[in-house]
Specification:
With 200 residues, this protein is mainly alpha-helical. It is built from seven helices and no strands.
Length: 200
């Protein structure tokens, strides 16, 4: 029993941390806007268009990935998503023109849309239905922590540094998290969340 609970807690911690990192790779654009505008000579309207493109693709991606996610292992889906958002943030840190920034940030919206559903699917495999509310609240807190960390920690730490750090640092965290999923969280055989239930 204790071993099973430890396994469940480890999986929850991994899912929770992954979504915190995902938020760092999402909110960083807002944190870096002033520096992007000044150092890349990009207008506020152009940056606003990039932000809007991100959310349009994010919304469409959730619809598409809701279907695809049922056909693919959620562990593989999360690995691809967090690595994808890491690679795109790393690429953004290396560009110096608006058009590639727009394209890369828009693509980031799609990879970001791949995360929430599979993470919750994984947690549903490991926890009984009676824990649904607690798990949902706990996972929602990852958004708050990610948002605060992006603004209060990274925002202040990188204030007097080039804008590229706003994307480079979260990218490294995302790629390290992807490695964790690829090597240490391959799925295995989670305990059935309900009696007689075969994990998906």
């Amino acid at each position: 029993m204790k071993k099973r609970m430890a396994g469940r807690n480890a999986v929850f911690a991994a899912c929770w941390f992954t979504y915190v990192v995902a938020y760092l790779c999402r909110v960083n654009f807002s944190s870096a806007m002033l520096k992007l505008s000044g150092e890349m000579q990009v207008s506020a309207a152009q940056l606003g268009a990039a932000g809007s493109a991100f959310f349009v693709v994010y919304a469409l991606g959730q619809l598409v990935n809701g279907y695809i996610g049922d056909k693919i292992s959620p562990y593989r889906f999360v690995t691809i998503a967090i690595c994808g958002t890491g690679v795109l943030n790393l690429a953004i840190a290396m560009v110096d023109e608006y058009l590639p920034l727009l394209v890369l940030w828009t693509l980031n919206g799609y990879f970001q849309s791949m995360l929430w559903g599979p993470l919750m699917r994984i947690l549903s495999q490991w926890f009984e239905a009676r824990h649904t509310m607690r798990i949902s609240v706990g996972m929602s807190m990852s958004m708050v922590v990610g948002y605060i960390t992006s603004w209060a920690v990274f925002g202040r730490s990188f204030l007097y540094h080039p804008w590229q750090l706003y994307f480079f640092a979260p990218a490294l965290l995302a790629l390290a998290t992807g490695l964790l999923w690829a090597v240490g969280l391959r799925g295995g055989a989670p305990p059935a969340a309900q009696e007689g239930r075969t994990p998906a």
